[in-house]
Amino acid sequence: MKISLRAGERIYINGAVLRVDRKVSVELVNDVMFLLEGQVMQASDATTALRQLYFIVQLMLMNPTDVRDAAALYAQHHAALRAVCESREMLDGLGVVDELVSATRYFEALKRIRALFPVEQAILAGAATIPPVEAA
């Protein structure tokens, strides 16, 4: 896989952070876990349940030698999300994410979670428009 980076851009590869000083192309010739800087979510941006799940899986990808704590947190958060979610699309997506995480395919899991962001937004927007129940 060939990746092009701009000057000053970072890439996270198997837990290592690399920053390039000039425009460069890097060819990854074996199977590695990587994350481009633009795909990294900051803790302050993990403002919804699904974004928090993304952040947890991101931690697993960025520190592959020590995933035990993040994996435990992932299991709790994933189970809580499945317990409260009623959307079939979201539940199906969370099932796929769990399979990917179980197979340590964190990058693919992150892609799948990102694809669910619009679904979560629609759910949250719908919840915000439900009128409150009036007392009798």
Describe this structure in words.
A hairpin with a 2-residue loop joins strand 2 (10-13) and strand 3. The protein has helices at 49-62, 68-84, 88-102, 106-129, and strands at 2-5, 10-13, 16-19, 24-27, 34-36. The protein is of the alpha+beta class and 136 residues long. It is built from 4 helices and 5 strands, in the order E-E-E-E-E-H-H-H-H. The protein has 2 domains: 1-40, no CATH class; 42-128. Helix 3 runs antiparallel to helix 4 (106-129).
What pattern of helices and strands is seen along the backbone? Answer: EEEEEHHHH
Mean pLDDT across every amino acid position = 88
Number of domains: 2
Radius of gyration: 18 Å
The level of helicity is: 40-55%
- Our measurement of the CA-to-CA distance between the termini, rounded to an integer number of angstroms, reads 63 Å
| Beta strands, count | 5
- Using the alpha-carbon principal axes, give the shape: globular
Q: Largest beta sheet: what is the strand line-up?
A: 3-2-5
The residue ranges in which pLDDT falls below 50 over 5 or more consecutive positions are: none
Major beta-sheet overview: 3 strands, antiparallel
Strand % is: 5-15%
User: From the helix content, strand content and strand pairing, which structural class follows?
Assistant: alpha+beta
Q: How many alpha or pi helices?
A: 4
